[in-house]
Every structure is written in structure tokens, then in C-alpha cells.
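= Protein in question =
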Amino acid sequence: MKAINKQDALQAVLDFQMKGLARDKEVENRAEEVDFTLSALLSVSFRKALEKAGAAVNRNVFINPYEFDAQYIRIPGGRYIYSQTEKEVSIPGLWFAKYPVTNRQYRSFVDFLAGKSSEAVNRLSQKAYTEALHELARSGDKAIIGFDAFLKDEQDLAERFRSGLDDDRKFNKDEQPVVGMSWFGARAYCLWLSMLAGEEFRLPTEKEWEWAGGGRREEPREVLKAKAYPWGDKPEPTPNHANYNSNEGATTPVGRYPDGATPEGVYDMAGNVWEWMENWYDERSEYKALRGGSWDDAPEYLRCSARVVNVPDGRNNGVGFRVVRPSPKLDI
């Protein structure tokens, strides 16, 4: 799979798909993702020839090279009854990160701030990013109240945004979700991604998150409430569905619970870590909302409608975040 930009590598993946050699859905999905990534790097004419010959191209996944090839899943838009208002809301299509941001991904951001990431520095200068960050913090945007004061407390940005649990062996494995970072840290990470990619990445709103986690997209003509859990209304949570109730004693590597994934293949929407939302929880703009439940929470917090709060500069071992890409990616 490392033979990028070579037609024989792509053909091998296509042969694997067309002969039905995958023994489970996860392997099949991964083959489609590799197909998509390689074909996007090949010439347009060759891709069109493959499509004309009947080769499948997965338009529901894209790979972000700036996050160690993180996978994003397309969530189609639709309407549902939002749990907090009991009113119908309309959600546009968007791309949801398949997993919460991991320690490995978040450390690459902190390394950039510390001047240790040569690849990112070549694409984006620390000076340009720092100026954009401070401009954002001073913008007066109501969504980021307190950001400017948060930055002034610590001039070293790498230290300002580093996870407070980066040295804790219970929580610092590469593929565990990053915890011990603030909402401001999550927002700063999204700005960094956006500047690297030249397109917007951000945190989801609660309405978007609830739709991605429990939306009933198989029944588009009828507006319904979101499902109780990402996997459906039943069964009630079990240790096969999620990491919760201190069953594991800490966070677990992302993607460990396929039984708890959404139908589109978004993982860890229930349990493991609460996820920072873009929006405020309250009208006074004191607390940011969180969704999803965490590794030490009771099962009722795994419901798609469950929500809690934290101050935007708060940090603890049960809170992480997930990134979304609002508008459609390449239509290949």
C-alpha cells in the first residue's frame, strides 16, 4: 500500500475488491479507502477509465494526510427532532472524523508549535499560524469568549496547548484519544488543520453530533427523533458496545468497539471520552457543551441525547474531541 501513484498498486486493490476477498466489513471498507486515496493521486483520465470499466470508488470516505491519514466519513444531510427542543431541525451534509483525535495526532500539532515538525513547518510557518491564532482570539466572536485571556496566561503555545496527561501512562498511548486538553486547545487544533489544508475543519455542533450519532437516515420521508444509541434503540449498552462504567479503568484505543459504531462506520460516539462541542451549553456563554459519555460514566450517559458541561479552559481525563469538515470533499 506504500506504492503510491503506481497503477499496478491500485489494480491490486481493485482486484482484491472485485474478487470479494475481504473476510469482514472493516477490511472491505479499508480496501475501499485505499482505492479512493490511490485513485485520487492518479491521473483523471486513468480514474475515469477505471470507473467506465465498473471499478468502485468510495465517495463516502476521504483521507486527511495532515492527520496521519485520518479517515472522515460522509454523513448525508437530513431532518430530525432535536432532543433538547423537541423541534425539527435540518442538518446539511458534512464529513465526520471516524474516530476522536488521538494522542499521536494531537502531539503532531504540539510538535509544530514547538518547532519540531519539519513537514508541517514547510507547509505552514509558525509565525503565520501564531498571527492567525491571536487574530482569532481577539476577533470578538461570541463562540470563543475568553480565548484571548487564555493565550495571555502562557506565551509558550506548545506548553499552553499540551495535554495535561501527556506523561500519564494510563492515557498517553498513541492510539488512545487525547484527553487533558481544553476546548481552546481543540479549537486551536482545528485552526491548524484548516490552515494546513486550505479548507475549514472545526468542532461539531450538538445538533450535528446528535444527527451523526443517531440520525435515522434510512427513513428520509419521515422526521423522527434520533436513535437512543449510535447502534440503535436496542440493545442497552454492554461492554461489547463501548468503554464505560470504568470497565477498562481508562480510555481505550479508538475503534475498539465495532458493535457500537454508527451504520456509516463512525466509532466511539458512545463512551471512551466526552467530546467538546462548538456551541455553548448556556445562554450566558460560561460553559461549553459535551456529548458522548466517557470511560468512567454510567450507561445512561451513552445515549445520543445525553449532554454535560465544562468551562472552556477545563481539562480532565474523560474529555477529548472529534473534528468535522463541513462541506463536501472532492467528488471523484
Observations:
- The mean pLDDT is 87.
